[in-house]
Amino acid sequence: MTTLPRAPEHALLTDLYQLTMLQAYFDGGMTETASFEFFVRKLPEKRNFLIAAGLEQVLDYLEALHFSAAELEWLAGCGRFHPRFIDSLATLRFTGDVDAMDEGTVFFADEPILRVTAPLPQAQLVESRIINLLQFQSLVASKAARCALAASGRLLVDFGLRRAHGAEAGLLSARASYLAGFSGTATVLAGMQWGVPLYGTMAHSFIQAHDDEVAAFEHFARSQPSANTMLIDTYDTDAAAHKLVALAERLRPDGITIQAVRIDSGDLGEQARRVRAILDAGGLNAVRVFVSGNLDEYAVRDLVAAGAPIDGFGVGTRMNTSADYPYLDCAYKLQEYAGQARRKRSEGKATWPGRKQVYRHRDADGRVTGDLLTTADDRAPGEALLRPVMRAGRQLAATPALTTVREHAATQLGALPAALRGLDPAPPYPVTVSDPLHALADAVDQRLQRNPSPDDRRSRP
Q: Cβ(205)–Cβ(17) under 8 Å?
């Protein structure tokens, strides 16, 4: 597989307050070790689980982090920062540690999927980009996993590049959806970058550019003799299916077969039934029926449940934008600084303090039964989900192949209880907070109470 060089990252792709805080830290000499954790506060409505994704891009970003000469020159000219601070940025590199859940791991609310431990300025600066990368891919992967579960093994292709929210979003959607169980993508660069299998058909414009629909089909079949899918709903879907039956006879002596047809409009289930009957009556039993057009996991589920003779689905906009719930209520919060556990106590947004670990429990059949959220130094029973992936600013192992991540995600989904794999809301998966973590929260609260703020609105997660 040919891969592209690592895409350049810009240190200024961040929020202004990261830099204003960094200058204040610099002025105050605050450079001791800090730990931040990324987690989701609560699952979106109707989501029973989430899938961790985006770690590869986060680690690449951290490893390459630096301020370019052009960025430093711009900062010097913007009038917000003093020269000594800007000079210090010239040598800034990420030298910290990262612990994280493997990509493709199922996770739940309040569970950290990534922890950054580094000198405070470094750990602070990377907040915005880390949230940006993890939130988006985890969001898309979770939506895509629901589509894959609904499709029950049928072909699923990502069609979402053209309506994705920008080029990076379209490319990373192709990666995240394949990770979560899609068969492949129409986005060619994802094939080159990560080896995601590529699928494609034709546009209505191809048919319209020909004076005759049959001529368009024949032209395409002869140009793509071993990989052709005919788009048959430009004019009259049933008539086009009959035309393909006749065309197949003419192509057969040349060893060319029609692989599939695509329907992109109308009542997809009903049209698929009519087309399937026409193809079968014409001896084209091996031709697959592929459908697309405003699909999501609910539409896929309904078509499958209705027994529609559909072999595959092209899913785009609603998956790539997670149209029903287009964001995660997620955060990257300070959990420890200078050797002391820290916690946020804002009303409705309180956090559990300290560096944490998640232990997963299973029954005798390997089905997951519950998680324990506890302190990082608590050696509890079960499978520890956060593991070391970066030390002293360098990745500990080569990036796993995306196919390996995909296999891990499939195993994770297969281990969920049946109710959680469905599309309907299910009783929440049990995540228990350990006694040591409760005790740590009490200790932090008592420490804070010795120096309370004027408006102390304490709460617990």
A: no
